[in-house]
Amino acid sequence: MAIAEPTVAPLVPQLLEVRAHRRETADTATLTLAPTGPTALGDAAPRPGQFAMLAAFGAGEVPISYSAMAGHGGAVEHTVRSVGAATAALAAARPGDLVASRGPFGTGWDLDAATGRDVVVVAGGIGLAPLRGVVDAVLADRDRYGSVNVLVGARTPDDLCFAEHLRGWSARGDVEVAITVDRLGDPASRWPGAIGVVTGLLDGACFDPDAATAFVCGPEVMMRATVRALGVQGVDVADVQVSVERSMTCGVGHCGHCQLGPVLVCREGPVLPAARVLPLLEVRER
Amino acid sequence: MTEPEIRDLVAGHPFTSGLSPAEVDAIAEGARVVDLLPGEALFREGRPATHAYLVTHGHVGIEVHHPGRGSIAVSTVGAGELLGWSWLLPPHAWHFDATARSIARLVALDATTVRAACDHDPALDRRVARQVMRTMTARLEAARHQLLDLYGHGHR
Questions:
Q1: What is the span of the domain harbouring residue A219?
Q2: What ipTM was assigned to the predicted interfaces of this complex?
Q3: What's the CATH number where A88 sits?
Q4: Residues of chain A neighbouring B145 (CB-CB closer than 8 A)
């Protein structure tokens, strides 16, 4: 994967207007954002897997993946989970509010690597957000790929993001969608599906391990376990891409906050070959 | 379903991968198919564990009954998996409840037959023990990850 070149004026935020707010879960929302004027993005329209530095005025700036690429009028979608001051302010933004955005930054998913091969998407929690663009792109060009499996793990049924999209993908018939939850949460839940970790879904997925490309995003422990489980299934680690979350700050490889060993995640990542990043993730950090 | 058909189900299940046809015959003797509807109980905590169940279709929930809260499903076992190992070790009694969460089909291996076949053939005994251990290892790792509540804190 090539190192991402900085976008035009990478440190200058662009004003975006919140056009829509969709509640995903109790603490997570998807914002549709559109430029308020002529965009300076040009050819730098985001690709699946890239991220932007989103700022809520007076609250702070945080790296957030694109969960849907440029649509009508350059509108993009970001899915934000409220875990701190800036993300809480962003998740609370409503149509008409303004936010600031820098980007797109980083590498995207290498979809070309999956051409003619089976596609296995494994998402944990909000890790589905940066992978949604992968699924959308694959399904928009469905004949280019073999079987498509989307395996999703969530904390509880109430914590499942993109429920409508998952239903839509599942209804197509040319993509296998499997969902599991770590726990029911509410014992009276009517959740009819699997309970357990997302790696358990790999046993029931139909793909050719010798000709499969896997895209994985979620908490690091989940990604390490998933790469191991894919290996048990026979998938070569060279055919696995992961998206790594680090404390991206400048977005252009200057500040070093996101450094992971020799890798500046904001430039070389966040999508990285599993073979390159896994040994780095196994280094114990303080 | 006829005996040969049930035998084929056992032979095609991942639990018996690596077993010879003769070994499959030995553990499949007396096996029967169990079909369950959603919500139908398969076994209950404390009851004798008389069968080893190979899930071939659907999902079965492993549940704990909690007074005042009812039955709480803590994990599910799906197609291609072994359901339960209490049949292998004394006192041969289930430690949890099992209830179908969807339409499910399982092959019930007679535990006495399987144990007797293993006692008679140390090589089969090792292979069966390894398969059970593989299942236990996967469930233990999964349980540890579930305990970590990976999706619960700070993940953006």
A1: 111-281
A2: 0.88
A3: 2.40.30.10
A4: 182, 197, 221-222, 225
